[in-house]
Design a protein that fits this description.
Blueprint (H helix, E strand, L loop, with lengths): L1 E3 L10 E3 L4 E6 L1 H9 L5 E2 L2 E2 L1 E3 L6 H13 L3 E7 H6 L1 H6 L6 E5 L12 H13 L9
Parallel strand pairs: 3-6, 3-7, 7-8
Antiparallel strand pairs: 1-2, 4-5
Length: 139
């Protein structure tokens, strides 16, 4: 049995998750196929821990899947391809929970852009706010 923090818990206590925690993926067909072949996919009681996004997938479907995955007790990490993340950027910018952790991954054929990755943007923001620059020029 593994343990993990859940939003709203007092004192940072960990809540046991019977059977462990899952990695979820929201991405294009090729990326999902790779993760499924690696054993990441799970379908239980009609609930999947992945969403295949293609040209027929609407932004509303992506947003709904993201909200559903972030509310599940058995999900510890959500991997989302950056191209898909761009479609729900407003949700990612508002997301402030530690668990499940949301990480952007590169999309096939599209270079990864750290300036669009909401985690990288937050890291840069925190880094710059704690950085103190000298006010006088030292010669």
């Amino acid at each position: 049995m593994t343990t993990r923090a859940r939003p709203g818990q007092k004192g940072g206590k960990m809540k046991p998750t019977p059977g462990g925690s899952l990695v979820a993926v929201i991405a294009d067909t090729d990326t999902i196929t790779g993760f499924l072949l690696a054993g990441v996919g799970q379908v239980e009681k009609g609930k999947k821990n992945f969403l295949v996004v293609d040209n027929k997938t609407t932004q509303a479907q992506i947003a709904e899947a993201f909200k559903e995955l972030t509310s599940r007790e058995d999900i510890a990490v959500i991997l989302i391809s950056q191209v898909v993340a761009n479609d729900i950027r407003h949700l990612l910018d508002e997301y402030d929970q530690l668990v499940p952790t949301v990480l952007e991954i590169p999309s096939r054929g599209v270079p990864y852009d750290p300036d669009k990755d909401f985690i990288m943007v937050r890291i840069k923001t925190v880094s710059y706010t704690h950085l103190t620059l000298p006010t006088k020029r030292i010669v």
